[in-house]
From TrEMBL:
This is FAD/NAD(P)-binding oxidoreductase. The keyword Magnesium does not apply. Signal peptide: none annotated. It comes from the Bacteria. It comes from Teichococcus wenyumeiae. The lineage of its organism: Bacteria, Pseudomonadati, Pseudomonadota, Alphaproteobacteria, Acetobacterales. Keywords: Oxidoreductase. It holds the Pfam family Fer2_BFD. Transmembrane segments: none annotated.
Length: 146
């Protein structure tokens, strides 16, 4: 349903479909999306991942593959005073590899939250830094003004 709504909006923006045509065709898709989204909170609670999914139990588990940082190292950084992923980055370089924390950021936050007895959102998240994805020197040189 969300894809159909996006397609209808794209067709409208490209001038292939009038606004009233888009809106009338969107009615059944919006109804479907509403039904699906109404069920989502229930499913999220019913099938919530266990704590070990985000915060590995074993200290030897590698959580940051780019920098080869283990869960034990993140827990040790928490004992040294790292309260959030950005402080852990300063201690350990988590989130500084090629993935820029896209693969490990949530796990690092979960481990730090676990160490402090906090909900994961309260541990914070990595601050995004440009470039958001690794680029080659050639791509950088091809940028306007480069």
């Amino acid at each position: 349903a969300a894809g159909a709504l996006a397609a209808l909006d794209a067709a409208r923006r490209l001038g292939r479909l009038a606004e009233h045509g888009r809106d009338s065709r969107a009615v059944p898709h919006r109804a479907t999306l509403g039904r699906v989204l109404a069920l989502r909170p229930f499913l999220d609670r019913l099938y919530a991942p266990g704590p070990a999914v985000l915060a590995p139990l074993e200290d030897a588990t590698v959580v940051c593959r780019c920098e080869e940082i283990t869960a034990g190292q993140v827990r040790a950084a928490a004992k040294l005073g790292a309260t959030g992923p950005n402080q852990a980055k300063a201690y350990l370089r988590t989130g500084m590899g090629p993935c820029q924390g896209r693969m490990c950021g949530t796990t690092v936050a979960a481990l730090l939250a676990e160490a402090q007895g906090l909900p994961i959102p309260e541990a914070g998240a990595l601050r995004p830094r440009a470039p958001f994805k690794p680029i080659t020197v050639g791509e950088l040189a091809d940028l306007p003004g480069g």
